Each structure stands twice: as C-alpha cells, then as structure tokens.
Amino acid sequence: MKKSVFKSLFLYLGLFLSFLLMLSCIQLYFNANDLLGKKNSDSNYWLTLSKTITPDNIGRKELLGFSSSNIKEIQSWKGVKKVFPIYSNDFKVSADGGSFIPFYTDMYLEAIDNEAIDVADLSEFQVKDNTIPIIISREYLNLYNYGFALNQGLPQITEAFAKKIEVNINLTLKEKNLKYKGKLIGLSDRIHSVLVPKTFLDSLNTTQVKFTHPEKVYSRVLIKVSDASDEELISKMNGKGYESNQESLRSAKIKGKLFLVLQAIALIGLFIFLLCMFMILNTIKIQFLEQKESVSIKYTLGYSPRAMVNQISKKFSIYVFITVLLCLIVLSIFQYYFSNAAIANQMLSSFIAKEIWFSLIIVPLFVYLVVKTIIYRWLISSWNF
C-alpha cells in the first residue's frame, strides 16, 4: 500500500514539474514579448546600414554609398519590409549662434522620407520664412548635457528649451551663400542624424552639378525589418560588408537566444510529461493485471472492456486536471509578484496569459484520449475479449 502511494506521489510530482516547466516557458515567452517587443509579422525593428570603410573605398562616395541597385537588392531580402535612403548634403554647411550664443561649427544635414521619422507631429517640418526646421538625435542632446556642458561648466538644456533656441545655418553653395535660421522641432530615438525636410535638401543638392554622380548614391539607408535577430539577414549584411547599429542587433540577438533557451526548457518539460504518460499507461496495465480475475468477472456480468477503460481514463484525466490547476495557481502567484517587481517596469500584466488557461482543458482531454485508446487496444489484444 505504501509503495503504491509513493509511486502515485512520484508520478504526479513528475507531472506537476513537467507542466510547471512548460507553462512557465510559455508565460515567459509572453513576458519577453511584452518587455522586448513582439516577434511576429507585425513587429518592426529599425536598422541603419552603412558600408564598411576599407582602404579600397575610403574617400570614394560612389563606393561608400548605396546605389539604386543596392537598395533594390536589400528590399528583396526576406524579412525586410521597407528601405528608406538617407540623403546627405552635397555642399558645405556651418552653424553659429550669432551674438546670443558665441559658437561656430561645421556640420552636416541629412534627410529621409517623413514616414521613417519617429516624431509624432511633423506639421512644422517644412521650411517657412527663411527658417529651417531641424530634427536631431536625442543622443546628441544627451552628449551635450552630460558630456560637454557638465565638463565645461555650461548650462544644461531641456528639450523644451532647446526648441526655443534659434541658430544661424550657413549654406555654401556653388554660386552663392545662403543664411537661414535653424529651429529644433523634435528629437529622434531612431535616426542618429541632423534631419531637415527632404524636398528642401533635394532642391539644394540639384544645384551642385560638380558634386553629382552619373548614378545617385546615398550615404546610408534605414531599413524596417520584422526580426533584427534573423541570422539569414545578419549573414547577408555581413556578406555585403554592411554595418549597422550594433546595439539594436545585440538586443535582438539577446531576445532570440532567450527564446531558444525557453524552447529548450519547454522541451525538457515535454520529455518529462511523456515519461509520466508512459508511467501512467504502465500503472493502468499493472492495475488491470493485478485485478485480472475481477475484470474477468465484470466482463462475464456484462461490463464491456470499453466501459471499464473509459472509467479508469476519466479518473486519471481528473487527476491530471487537478495537477494542471495547481500549476496554474502557482504560476499565477509568481506572475503577480514578477509583474510588480522593479525589473518589469510596469510593462507586464499581473495575470498569466489567457492562452495558458486552455491547457486546463486540452491536457486532461489529451490524457483521456491517449489512455482510452492505448489501454483499450492493449486490453483487447492481450486478453482476447
């Protein structure tokens, strides 16, 4: 009796651990998607591509830039949703603060389709009254505030205050010099650049005949992809000698490896579950063998083998239902505390994913059907009913 109880406890403990492993991995998958971004066809990752500088192409814009054929090829890659060329200035640009802020610096300007810019309101992103609207990388403002201003004893600047400052933008074209006022209208987390309206930059570049090439080339391209951790995509980039913002690739790779680890753990849980199923089937067979005389009497009295198998299958599926329910309760408790932890940053739900609750029906039903089918066939073939 004690031996039988010990076997049953060992069996259901194994089932509990297998379910806990598999269901935990599924929930962690949902949590990782919430924290790192969903990995599906609707996901969007943005990568800025440039060509690796080598002794052969250094200083040669036609080799360092992306041609139309390069862009078409990138667009054809699997997982690439859209390619946005980044246009750069073909003339000299400088900026100064006038009498208000005594500074002078050479600079550059770039432009891209508005669709790719991550600033919500672009209604002011057009040149008006000799004023150029500018969008810069948020990192540039951070570099000034935390790198330059602190070390030089200069005041730090908030985003709101930066939008109120106007600087002089000096353009040295082929035939004339132009002066504009530059006004910041937004900060970009996606594009590390100094952006101006594309139509404005195009109109100025077309005047610079001596700098044009037979074929238009672009210094960099911004691509929208569904999965930045796609090994095939990364392999093609490396094969073409393209470089990208490594931080985006690194975080995407971490996410991909995390999902791989979760899949491995879930497979271990599935393996334990299959072992437990094997033990359940053997336990039922042993019970039938130990009660062979009683089973034969029941059969003589009119009990059908199918009815006897159905009865014992229902019993085990109920036990499995209780085991899965306990796992879900434990998982719900862990999810509640994890969602309120600092690492979750209030980005996780306090409840486990609704898809996981379906296991409360699917797993017991699966056990019932498997036990019913396999045990019935064994009973019919072995006992010659």
Report what the structure shows.
This protein is an alpha+beta fold and 385 residues long. The chain folds into two domains: 2-39 and 253-383, no CATH class; 45-225, no CATH class. Helices cover 53% and strands 17% of the residues. The chain has a six-stranded mixed β-sheet. The chain has a five-stranded antiparallel β-sheet with strand order 5-2-10-1-11. Strand 3 and strand 4 (101-107) form a beta hairpin. It starts with a helix and ends with a helix. The model has no long low-confidence stretch (mean pLDDT 81).
Shape call: elongated
Number of DSSP strand runs: 11
Main sheet: strand order: 4-3-7-8-6-9
The H-and-E topology, N to C, reads as: HEHHEEEEEHHEEEHEHEHHHHH
- Annotation field: number of helices: 12
Structural class: alpha+beta
The N- and C-terminal alpha carbons lie at a distance of 30 Å
**What is the helix content?**
40-55%
Low-confidence stretches: none
* Beta-strand percentage range: 15-25%
Tell me the major beta sheet: 6 strands, mixed
Rg estimate, integer Å: 33 Å
Nearest-integer average pLDDT: 81
